[in-house]
């Protein structure tokens, strides 16, 4: 029986290739995905050549103590917000001295305790020395399906972000020659 590659396997091979070719290092700060992004990346043999580390900061106190996210920021915007996703991505990149980082924060469900926000609302942050981009997404499905979709989308966003930076560097180098 021939095993077919699924979409995430193809994305992970692309990620590995671009990271190794450019000697880039990555790190991850996770909340709603509970370590799934880190696990998915490290499932690939050789990932220790580019994956520095990750943290799961599920509760607000962990975000505050491990990633130094100001509790005032969390209280003002909630842990599931663009500003918190941005801070998580920047902080984990600095913590691990990586070139790029991913952050995930959201509501995977099945229900919310103290929020009017819908299950499936997620913010994915991608950070580099150049800046941070945060994406707001809505995913549908059960808890596990949402976490898998967030993981796949985060990896896709990271690949696109890295490729755009490489293209910009290439363009700048060509213009200066």
How would you describe the overall organization of this protein?
The protein is an alpha/beta fold. The chain has one domain (about 5-175): CinA-like (Maf protein, Alpha-Beta Complex). It has six helices and five strands; from the N terminus they run αβαβαααβββα. Helix 1 (about 5-20) runs parallel beside helix 6 (about 145-175) and helix 2 (about 35-40) packs across helix 6 (about 145-175).
Features:
alpha/beta, 6 helices, 5-stranded mixed β-sheet, 177 residues, Maf protein
Looking at CATH, the homologous superfamily is: CinA-like
Portion of residues within helices:
40-55%
Q: How many separate structural domains?
A: 1
Which stretches are poorly predicted, pLDDT < 50 over at least 5 residues?
Answer: none
CATH level-3 fold name:
Maf protein
CATH architecture descriptor: Alpha-Beta Complex
What is the C-level CATH assignment?
A: Alpha Beta
Number of helix segments? 6
Largest sheet: 5 strands, mixed
Task: Please render the helix and strand layout as text.
Layout: H1 7-22, E1 26-30, H2 36-42, E2 51-56, H3 60-67, H4 71-77, H5 82-96, E3 100-106, E4 121-128, E5 131-138, H6 143-176
Parallel strand pairs: 1-2, 1-3
Antiparallel strand pairs: 3-4, 4-5
Helix pairs in contact: 1-6, 2-6
